[in-house]
Amino acid sequence: MNAKPPHDISTLDWRPWQRRPRTTATKPDAPDASQDHLQRVGTVFVCIMLTVLTFYNVCKPLNSISSRHHQRTELVEPAAHAIIRRCANIRAVFGPPTSSHDRDSSDRFELGTRPTLIKNATLWTGARNGTEVVYGDIFLDKGLIRRIGDIPDILYTEKDTYVVDAHGAWVTPGLIDLHTNLGLMSAPITAGALDYSSSHGPISPWLRTIDGFNTHDVAFRLAVAGGVTSAQIVPGSGNVIGGQAFMVKLRKTSERTPSSMLIEPPYVLNDSIPDSNLPFRWRYLLQACGESVRAYGNRMDTVWALRSAYTEARQLYDAQNAFCTAAEAGSWMNISRQSFPEDLRWEALVDVLRGRVKVSVQCSEAVDLDAMVRLSEEFKFPIAALLDAHEAYIMPEALKRSYGDIPVIVLSTNGARAKRETYRGSEFSPRILADHGFLIAMKSDQPQHDSRRLLFEAQQAHYFGLPPHLALSSVTSVPAGAAGLLHRIGVLREGADADVVIWDSHPLQLGATPRKVFIDGILQVGNDTDHIVIGPGKTAPGWRQPPKVPNFDAERKATFNSEGLPPLESNKTIGGRVLFRNVQEVFLRQSSQSVGVATHLEGNVGVTHVVVDRGRVTCVGPACEGEGRNAEAVMDLQGGALAPGMMTFGSSLGIEEIESEPSTGDGPQFDPLRANVPDIVGDAGGLMRVDDTLLFGTRNALLAHRAGVTYATTSFVKSPLFLRDKIMGGLSTTFRTGAPHALERTAIIKQVTALHVSVERAPPSSYVPQTASLSAQIATLRHLLLGGEDPRTQTGEWFKKAAEGTIPLVVEVSSADIMATLIRLKSEVEEKRGTYMRMVFSRATEAHLLADEIAHAGIGVIMTPPRQFPWSWADRRMYVSHSLISCAALTAHTFMPMLSLAGPPLTNGTALSKLLSHGVTVGLGTWDAGHVRATRFDIGWAVLESNNWINKRQAYELVSTNFEKLLDLEGWIGDFGDLVAYEGGSALDFTSKPVAIVSPARELVEIL
């Protein structure tokens, strides 16, 4: 850094030189004796003062230092010392607290907490750039890590110590989420709990997230269940300067207040005039730019707003410095009518200029990142972290020119392409930036992505090339360092806070699950009496090591050279014979009903070969190598797999290129419950067909294709974060994700797949001013299904088909109560019309509460997304209130609700496994088009979360043949469905990557 930030200061306001004004009496008509006496006294006083001044001028050259001392001590005592101390503090150089490792106990220690010994552990400490691993024990006491290594019995046997035998398991520091809105958009999200952005102007550095932080956010417990123990709570990115952020621990304390969850809160939290004798503590601030702040103007407006704000702050900064310069020089008369310059509106930005604030900047595109570099250079302040910096990898050297230390780059792997400014974002960005010397932190951006998935972001970064030690550092030591808290969190070292996670496998393995989570030495997750089964089937040595990931050097180079837009089309196609050698797993479609296992040779790599001729499998087995001698291509899968091409459902794939860019999509749809559909449309319901607006060749679709997701079914229903979509979801289409255009043979699998509607309560947002009531939605649905519209119209025709069961009716619904109503409505329609409806619930967050009833009614379920979350009130019963833990048991629990069927480590079961166990046909979808390519990881995770109750065959069916059953696609794909060849390992983990698509319908093999 070019300038070292000083210690914290007080902001005392001293005015000792302002004398109390004399009272002015009314002038009398004539002088009296008392007035004459005062005049004589005044004359004598003037003479004395003249004598003193004459003596002063004679002696001044000999005693100037002494006179300045008297001027200080006599004219301004006792305030002078306070002013001088305050001014010295604003110029002081500071660093981490020197005594942080000498603490006897943590400031967050809860009385009654037992010491904890974790023995026989594999400790990833975070030291030596994340490469240090210690085999031994770790002792936690009074909220601190007291000892690491070989710990003598005497340290814990004399105390009531809780002893945990890790049996060699990996132990890491608690994970840290550097970019989250936890507590500001608290789950379940309601209009009264949306406190993430202000609508009162672009510049608001005086706002503080702690003032809107909701301690009842259910997401805290979910995040802790994912190993996340600390987080930076940032304001929303809708403002250019959204306000001050705060670092918190996700443990609700016995005090049950937001303030008690803070980590080293700044002293200005409770007093705008802090004690200047206290040690320094960091403050945090969020700035944003680009598309997020469009409500306040364009990019030029944004930068001007920032420059204007910092100019105001710099004027106050300069005024404070000038005031202190005069005070330190003893020029008290020059500032006799002044107080210390301060303004609460700008004091946070003044602290930025003094280097006291960790500034996070949320910008994505090169134009914005470059502007922030210029801003930091102009006003001489360092940027601690660049959030969502998706184009940082395109311009790494330019970012190094920012003032001070190189900023940490904070990313998510699947966060790109939702906006135009993130369109060039790449999964290879973390590795490219690491190669250029940048520190990388992965983040959730809750609630965009569930904070519980934070480790999954690091796992994916490793999969795409980030070395293991840097991937683990990206969610531990790097974010801790960016927050200036590395002396407390993000590492395992003696004297650090006792935030510790014990994992069931190596943390970078897919599905790695915490066995136990400690915050401040207090057990949060993994109480022995809960009897949660974690990690069965993970006893093999391979689970103790980071996964051996594929090589993506060529793809990474192409991405960098093309500035994020490498070609995604296949390298070539082969219409003849192809031999796949060294295949470990082969999963074939036995029929249109299921996926069969032709051969499944776990741990027996290199003995099976597969021959494909004109896109069809003709031979499977060790003897097939001879049949493939005349093959046009031979591909060594190196212990890889052949598995069915997967299908995705629920996202906007195929109808828009960029989610937040209207010009790349179909445009607004009619909602007949808000306004009448224009007569020229000729249909009262405004029912539209997706195949009329299909887009091919979008980057999300091509990336999905290259990731083994070869089919997509798309409707007009969206599942946005804050608002329910219109009731009419249109007629969906099933298409091939890799097709170049709609006229290619087999590009469109089925033009009209299903009829879609959305039925929900009002959204927790003011973005939809006129939303129809739930009762109106049900009444409309009943009217349409019972023949209320002319069957010659589109609405009448397709609702008649849905009522008769000739087309599936897919209902987007979350609430179990609404599902119950729909089950009764289905029965009513079937009874009155004498038909059988094919109804499917999508999204279906609370479906597990009615698993038996749904199965009995013959209704299918599409869980969207696979790992669900209580986004809204309609999703709230993903969790149920648990009896509050008694105060005596506080050291082992928090006062947060227990979640139902959230999966390990919170519950033994999952919503998915419960539905399957009741015989419900289930598909797994996603509403995030950018996440589609991770579908195979989602189902691999689902297998592991079910404690292997779900096998691989069932897992593949969740994204292939089950969809064919649910959406009446049987016979449309069937035996002619695609297969995907994976090199290096199973399709359901991080060891493999897709290298070819085997397409019987097209009679070819596509080499990726």
UniProtKB/TrEMBL annotation:
Per the record, which residues fall in region Disordered? 1-34
Which Pfam families does this entry report, sorted A to Z?
Amidohydro_1
What biological processes does GO assign it? N-acetylglucosamine catabolic process
InterPro entries noted in UniProt: Amidohydro-rel, Metal-dep_hydrolase_composite, Metal_Hydrolase
| Keywords on record | Hydrolase
Residues in domain Amidohydrolase-related? 437-521
* MF (Gene Ontology): N-acetylglucosamine-6-phosphate deacetylase activity
Q: Can you say what this protein is called?
A: Amidohydrolase-related domain-containing protein
Source organism per UniProt? Pycnoporus cinnabarinus
